[in-house]
Every structure is written in structure tokens, then in C-alpha cells.
Design brief:
The chain is an all-alpha fold and 217 residues long. It contains eight helices and two strands; from the N terminus they run H-H-E-H-H-H-E-H-H-H. The chain is globular and about 75 Å long.
């Protein structure tokens, strides 16, 4: 998510020469307005998914948890990924550059970019373990977030958007997902099953039903 930068002089960090703070604030505002406008639709989708699951025999609590986690994960991630793939400027259509030295960009990265990078995969970290039992582990969340961030940085470079594909972006994206996972840990800690789709969830619900012993022969 870093802006394009020239090679810094030794000991001077990285100079940001992409969109300025006002440009990024405008982009954040646009993404926020789009997200707010989509909230009614997201609420309808959550309700429809929860209704469908309850009709399939899933308990109300499990149905709503799965539906909220799915919609929250998608709606909380896509706007940030979209922002990261916007061109740095209308004039820049080159590959940008690579920055593979850890913490070199971070020392001169503006605060708004640090916060933005922390939020890119925060929804994945927060809702992922609630939805998928396999992600109910902080190390797994971190590994998945790092892999997704590497994919985003690679896509930035491949799409000629004129940005710096930086290892520090990967570190911040991963840290944001980890912090979000810790924030939701009280609801997924020790979980052995996901708030999953109707078929698998129904089987899990059936396992919880008490069984009666067979009549004596």
C-alpha cells in the first residue's frame, strides 16, 4: 500500500512522492461512503443467510454467527483491497518499485498509511476464526494474512499501478490481522468447529442431541 518512492540516500529513510495526505483522505472517505451505502444491503444479506440456515435446521445463534462472520469478512476486506490497487497517480503507469529491506519504509511512512495498512486485513483476522475452525489459532491467522498480503503486493507490482511493493506493508497487514484476531479471541478461543454452512452445521448440531440407550434385549 506504500506510495512510489525514489531510492533514498543512505541514512535518510524513504521519501514519499505519491499521493499526499489529502489525496489519501479523499480515497478513505470515498471507501467509507461506499461501505456505509452498502450497509443496508449487507444487513439484508446477513438476514437472508441466517434465515436460510435456520430453515435448514441450524440453531438461531449458530446461523447468525456464521452469517455475520461471512458478510463482515467480505465487506471489511474488499474496500481496503480495492484502495491498495488504485493507481498511485494518473501519470504513473510503471511497475513502481520493490522494497525488500524490513523496516526501511516504516521509519518514514506517514501515520495515515500505517493505520491504513493495519486495517487492510483486520476483518480477516477478526471474522476468519469466528467462521472457520481451522483459523481458530493466532499463528494460522498470521500465516494466512501474510500470504494474502504478499499476493496483494505482487498484484500491485504486476498491474503497473506505480506503487512500492514493500515488505513493510506485508508486516503491517499481518500485524493488523493478528491484533484483530486477538480482539475477537474471546469468542473463538478453544473452538473446534466453524460456524459453518448448513450441511456441515446440521451434522454438528445433530451430534449434540442426546441419545437414548437401546432397550434391553
Amino acid at each position: 500500500m506504500s506510495d512510489p518512492t525514489p531510492l533514498p540516500a543512505p541514512g535518510h529513510g524513504v521519501i514519499i512522492n505519491g499521493p499526499g495526505p489529502h489525496d489519501w483522505i479523499n480515497r478513505y472517505e470515498t471507501a467509507g461512503l461506499v461501505a456505509l451505502a452498502a450497509l443496508p444491503l449487507a444487513a439484508l444479506i446477513v438476514g437472508a443467510l441466517a434465515w436460510w440456515r435456520t430453515r435448514a435446521g441450524i440453531t438461531t445463534r449458530t446461523a447468525w454467527r456464521a452469517s455475520v462472520a461471512e458478510v463482515g469478512l467480505v465487506c471489511g476486506t474488499l474496500p481496503w483491497v480495492w484502495l491498495t490497487l488504485l493507481p498511485a497517480s494518473k501519470e504513473r503507469t510503471d511497475h513502481g518499485s520493490l522494497s525488500l529491506v524490513p523496516l526501511r519504509d516504516l521509519v518514514s511512512m506517514p501515520p495515515y498509511q500505517v493505520v491504513g495498512n493495519l486495517l487492510v486485513l483486520a476483518a480477516l483476522g477478526y471474522f476468519g476464526p469466528l467462521r472457520f475452525a481451522r483459523l481458530a489459532s493466532l499463528p494460522r491467522v498470521l500465516v494466512l494474512a501474510a500470504a494474502c498480503s504478499v499476493l496483494i503486493e505482487t498484484t500491485q507490482y504486476a498491474l503497473h499501478v506505480g506503487r512500492v511493493s514493500s515488505v513493510d506493508d506485508v508486516l503491517l497487514n499481518t500485524a493488523g490481522a493478528g491484533l484483530a484476531a486477538l480482539a475477537s479471541r474471546r469468542w473463538w478461543r478453544g473452538s473446534r468447529r466453524p460456524a459453518a454452512a448448513a450441511g456441515g452445521d446440521q451434522a454438528l448440531e445433530n451430534r449434540r442431541l442426546p441419545t437414548t440407550p437401546p432397550p434391553p434385549g
